[in-house]
Design goal:
The protein has nine helices and two strands. Helix 2 runs antiparallel to helix 3 and helix 3 packs antiparallel against helix 5. The protein has two domains: 159 residues, ABC transporter transmembrane region fold, CATH 1.20.1560; 68 residues, no CATH class. A hairpin with a 2-residue loop joins strand 1 and strand 2. 74% of the residues lie in helices and 1% in strands. It is mostly helical.
Amino acid sequence: MDFFRVYGRVIGLLKAERGLAIMLALANVAVAALQFYEPVLFGKVVDLLSTARDKPVDVLWSDARELLVLWAAVGIGGIVANIVVSLQADRMAHRRRLGAMATFFEHVLVLPFAFHHSQHSGRLLKVMLTGVDHLFGIWLSFFRENLATFVALFIMLPLSLFMNWRLGLLLIVLIVFFAVANAWVVGKTDRLQAQVEEYHSELAGRAGDALGNIHLIQSFVRLGVETSEMRRIIALAHDFGVEVVPHCGYLGAGFLATVHIAASMGDVLVERLGIDLEASPFGPFAEITNGVARVPQGPGLGHDPDPALIARYRIQEPNVIR
């Protein structure tokens, strides 16, 4: 019963345009009636041709003319009705698709931070885009095909039993067989597709978060690449007898990075800016003692700047005379 409950909720989202939805539903009833009546007229044409020998020519042509005109009118009317229903259903589905997207977006924005902390933004974006696409497909197929099929199944099919009960029973048996087989196939496919969609949502969540924080990720992703390229250039320079001396133009985080690069190269020279600061935010790791630089071993660059020292030497806002 979950299928009918979800289907009913999807159709219920059209309440903002209930007037047009009701008109399209009535138009579908008319389309189903025309589709049912068209083969009946064709059967009457066949019956007329089969009894043509027993009728005068003028009577035959008169009856044939009436049937053919009615048959053509029903066929053309069905085509026009299908075009109008499809066009209006398509426009309404597009409008409601945008409306559903706006509703979802507004709802997500007011959810508490705890929810967003546990959910990937990329996953939510995929749910919004995929969800409204599925809603659009259901609305469109409902008014273009499914509703007319329902009317033909539950109203026109019983009427066929009164016209020819033998063929009507055969048609019912075929419909039951098709429904059972289709339910089995769709049920199994739906379970497998749900697992695939879960993987897709997880992938979209990861990818969305990565793209949303690309400025942070690129720095970490490029770190290994740049280091490998630097090693390749240093090895190439050594092959040609060129000495490589890592250096940095200021005493700060860049100098710590330079020390790490030099340490990865082995026993090499390091050039340091030839000045001594009154106080160094990185302490002893920015100093050269007996011609040797110490390599910090902490996370990141190995050593964090001293916050008390930064606060001490912070430039205060100057006094401005207005």
